[in-house]
Specification:
Layout lengths: L9 E4 L3 H9 L6 E7 L5 H4 L6 E8 L2 E7 L11 E6 L2 H12 L11 E3 L5 E6 L2 H4 L5 H11 L7 H9 L2
């Protein structure tokens, strides 16, 4: 029996949980929808959803568990939380940037951050970002920061050059 991950993100949607789960699982490999639970008549006076409407979608992105909940319009995503996608090369950065950014707000793009069409914030960054911004070499980290600040989509080669002082 596989181990259960103790902590997984639950993403609150108005009524787009299944649509969003399909969107995300179509982008990341090793991803799929596990289950779709539906509202029943029980609790209607609280949830106000018709019996049969999608309530919760359990899905996996690159093998990691997520939950999408159709909870209503009370809550919206903010930049206070984002999901990081660590990318090995520029091709991966470009792929995830294009796929996750499709239909999102272009005004909400800065320094590798974007908002998808559901309002969820993502960081599409090189997998060596910790090294590039390491306080062990503050001068290199400062050069990387100055190179990154005007970027929307990350240019990995430009960050590597800035880190190297070129």
């Amino acid at each position: 029996m596989p181990a259960i991950q103790r902590i997984n993100p639950c993403l609150w949607f108005d009524d787009q949980a299944e649509e969003a789960a399909k969107f995300y699982t179509g982008i990341f490999r090793n991803s799929h929808i596990d289950t779709v639970s539906r509202y029943s008549k029980a609790g209607f006076e609280v949830h106000h959803r018709p019996a049969g409407a999608v309530a919760v979608v359990a899905f996996r992105l690159d093998g990691l568990p997520f939950t999408a909940l159709n909870g209503g319009p009370q809550f919206k995503f903010t930049e206070a939380i984002s999901l990081q996608v660590m990318c090995k090369d520029q091709d991966e950065i470009d792929y995830y940037w294009a796929k996750l950014g499709a239909g999102g707000d272009p005004k909400a793009q800065a320094c590798g951050w974007l908002k998808d069409k559901y309002g969820l914030s993502w960081q599409i960054v090189p997998d060596n970002m910790d090294e590039l911004a390491s306080p062990d070499d503050q001068a290199a980290a400062d050069r990387v920061m100055l190179a990154m600040l005007p970027m929307k989509r990350i240019d990995k080669a430009a960050l590597d050059r800035a880190h190297a002082g070129k």
